[in-house]
Design brief:
By secondary structure, the chain is of the alpha/beta class. Helix content is about 35%, strand content about 10%. The chain has an 8-stranded mixed β-sheet, sandwiched between helices. Helix 3 runs parallel beside helix 4. The protein is globular, with a radius of gyration of 18 Å.
Length: about 325
């Protein structure tokens, strides 16, 4: 039996710079805390700066705070500009922040909130920061998805913003499926650079603030079961931390809990849904995301088709 992966296996992170979105609470907090404890210089990219400062004060090491509201492209651009002015490199960009099962609402740019925050905000942030990563050998973009990418999930190109009808569960599934498709397409585009890789992770079912928006029809019946079917944020952060730091990780891989149904447990390589690997949909989503955000990624060298590098599937 393989040895269980824990934070004790995180290599020395001294000299590395990590930017973690949504790091003032929950999974992001535990991810940032573990990286800082291993010596990384960590930036907490958070919507509420005051809460970010409070979180930083509870961590050990070099931890700073950057204002970032992923529901506003203006804020994403401002945060990227601020980070570019203060950092000369980024080793780890961890796209962790997100919203889940929210009532129908829109971002400041008019996008459906879950798609706009979970996918488009991180798509734009990554594109605006990527040239700080490309010169850094071993750098990684880690995007946090969810088992929700399997539940009523599809990329609804005919109604991406859910203007005709709205299902909070299906909209969340679309946003988390988009996170995976973004990761896989990004990896293909990064392959010819040979320095930076894109990896995905999911936390299983963790007891975090995201659960507050569960529909009452789900939340009330399972309320008493919550301690039995969820794991702590510290455990939920382990797949992200493994994706970010394990030397054996390859671009395009996906990590999640190793227990039954990937609900709980120590992290291992897992497989996402069949549709998440559909390259044509990934490429179409990429083009639409560029159009919606106005962000273009650094150009891939033309010597090789960026889609010629295969995406790994777990086992």
């Amino acid at each position: 039996m393989a040895e269980k992966w824990t934070t004790a296996k995180i290599p020395d992170q001294r000299g590395r710079v990590a930017v973690v979105t949504g790091a003032n609470t929950g999974l992001g907090y535990e991810t940032a805390k573990a990286l800082a404890e291993r010596g990384a210089s960590v930036v907490l990219a958070v919507r509420n700066v005051e809460k970010g400062e409070q979180a930083a004060a509870r961590m050990t090491g070099d931890v700073t705070v950057q204002a970032l509201d992923l529901a506003s492209l203006d804020s994403v651009r401002a945060a990227a500009a601020a980070l570019r002015s203060r950092l000369d490199r980024i080793d780890l960009l961890i796209n962790n922040a997100g919203v889940m099962y929210t009532p129908r609402q829109t971002t400041r740019d008019g996008f459906e909130a879950q798609f706009g925050t979970n996918h488009l905000g991180h798509f734009a942030l990554t594109g605006l920061l990527l040239d700080l990563m490309l010169p850094v050998s071993g750098s990684r973009v880690v995007t946090v998805s969810s088992t929700g990418h399997r539940i009523r999930a599809a990329i609804h190109f005919d109604d991406l913003q859910w203007e005709r009808s709205y299902s909070r569960v299906a909209a969340y599934g679309q946003s988390k499926l988009a996170n995976l498709m973004f990761t896989y397409e990004l990896q293909r585009r990064l392959a010819t650079f040979g320095t930076t890789v894109a990896v995905a992770a999911h936390p299983g079912v963790s007891s975090t603030e995201l659960l507050r928006n569960l529909p009452p029809a789900i939340r009330l019946p399972i309320g008493w079961l919550t301690p039995l079917i969820t794991q702590s944020p510290a455990m939920g952060a382990l797949p992200t931390l493994r994706a970010a730091t394990d030397p054996a990780v390859l671009g395009g891989q996906y990590y999640g809990p190793g227990g039954r149904y990937e609900i709980m447990g120590h992290p291992r390589l897992v497989t996402s849904s069949p549709q998440s690997y559909e390259a044509a949909i990934q490429q179409r989503l990429w083009a639409v995301s560029e159009d919606l955000t106005g962000v273009r990624f650094p150009t891939v060298p033309s010597k090789q088709d960026p889609r010629s590098s295969p995406v790994s599937r777990g086992s």
